[in-house]
Amino acid sequence: MTSYSSFSDGTRAVHAGLPDPEVGEPFLPGPVFAAPYHLDPVTGPGANGYARTEHPTRQALESAIGALEGAPTLVFSSGQAAITALLLAVLRTGDTVAIPSDGYFTVRAFADGFLRDLGVRTLLVPTAGPYPDFTGVRLVLLETPANPGLDVCDVRTLSEAAHAAGALVAVDNTTATPLGQNPLALGADLVVASGTKALTGHSDVLLGYVSATDPELLTRVETWRKQTGAVPGAFDAWLAHRSIATLDLRLARQTANAAAVAELLLSRSDVTGVRWPGLPSDPSYPVASAQMRRIPGVVSFDLGSAERVGRFLAAAKLVFAATSFGGVHTTADRRAQWGDDTPPGFVRFSCGIEDTADLLADITAALSS
Ligand SMILES: Cc1ncc(COP(=O)(O)O)c(C=O)c1O
Predict the structure, then answer these.
(1) 175 touches 185 (CB < 8 A)
(2) pTM here?
(3) Whose CA is nearest to atom 15 of ligand 1?
(4) Which of 54, 58, 139, 278 could form a disulfide with 295 if both were Cys (CB 3.0 to 4.6 A apart)?
(5) How many domains does the chain have?
(6) Is 109 helix (H, G, I), strand (E, B) or coil?
(7) Mean pLDDT for all residues in the chain
(8) Which GO terms of type biological process are on file (predicted)?
(9) Same domain for 253 and 230
């Protein structure tokens, strides 16, 4: 397969994981719907035996994401399937895992339940620090930018500290996407992410992945996946691959919209706590601007109460009330409704790819309603 690694983001996204051109064949081969494949009963399986282990549509998607993350990749049926696979493949009874105190809340719930029951200790670490001594920690999981508060951490510095203490480092790259930052190039051992968000961006598939350069580490995760079975189906894998072609374009518009929305919100006295790592006044700006190649389209802010968030969303024509983020439609999520540890009026706002002027006018009208 031709390598496009020397090209820029848009070109790499369009060509990621595509087979070399062949006359009469499509650019992106359609989904292969198969569980078992024909076998040679004497010699056993060839390239494909059974779809939980081998699947051409899934493998093409893995090549695509792997090309963008810069390492071999395994895809999973959701982001949580990928994160829990990584944690359970790496951690043993008696180990300590460091996880963000302000990251995706289901990871904390998993650590506080199943991991604790397995005898794994959890150290909760704020993304913006202060950071503990990692001595005795087996795995440090970072999430940057953290969802939903959007703090950012320095992956290179933390990876050096964790490695010096003998710990592995994994980075949740969901919000940034591989076009926003490449944690493996910054020193992390593993990348884990939900592809449900901006990577696929159409709010129509659940997807997760793990990438790693160390073949031994990735084989552990692959064995876990093979034996527990959380693989995405053929159609989801194909939809995801098809969506990646437009990743660069989608992110560009989302970032431009987020920059304009953050400025608008900052200028209003009836909105507080505006966070966007691309704002020069944001506490995350110095690290984000040095570490990230682009800032994602997610902004957070506080409207003071659940009722005001409700009024805002009822009045807005271009902002859907929905959880998740990173899609082509602009959405807003009042996180406290999920039991996330946020104030009642806290909103995670995900900019879509609508026209910037339309979005600003709609938000302005809805906030003033
Ligand atoms: C940062 C982060 N990681 C992981 C996940 C889990 O992904 P999924 O919903 O695809 O299981 C999410 C979901 O919101 C997330 O925001």
Answers:
(1) no
(2) 0.98
(3) 104
(4) 278
(5) 2
(6) helix
(7) 97
(8) cysteine biosynthetic process via cystathionine; transsulfuration
(9) no
CA 26 – ligand 1 centroid, Å: 32
* Residue where a domain terminates, one of 210, 229, 244: 244
Same domain for 198 and 273: no
In this structure, which residue's CA is closest to atom 8 in ligand 1?
79
| Residues 240 and 348 placed together within one structural domain of the fold | no
Query: What is the span of the domain harbouring residue 165?
Result: 9-244
Model pLDDT, residue 51: 97
Q: Give the Cβ contact number of residue 229 at 10 Å.
A: 11
Q: Does any ligand 1 atom lie closer than 6 A to the CB of residue 206?
A: yes
How many Å lie between the centroid of ligand 1 and the Cα of residue 7? 29
Average pLDDT over residues 72-79: 98
- Both 214 and 356 in one domain: the answer is no
Distance (Å, whole) CA 247 – CA 293: 14
Report the candidate in 69, 73, 101, 102 with the shortest Cα–Cα distance to residue 86: 73
Beta carbon of 340 within 6 Å of any ligand 1 atom: no
Using alpha carbons only, what angle is made at residue 62 by residues 36 and 192, rounded to the nearest 5 degrees?
120
By the 8 A CB rule, do 305 and 168 touch?
no
Report which protein residue has its CA nearest ligand 1's atom 6: 79
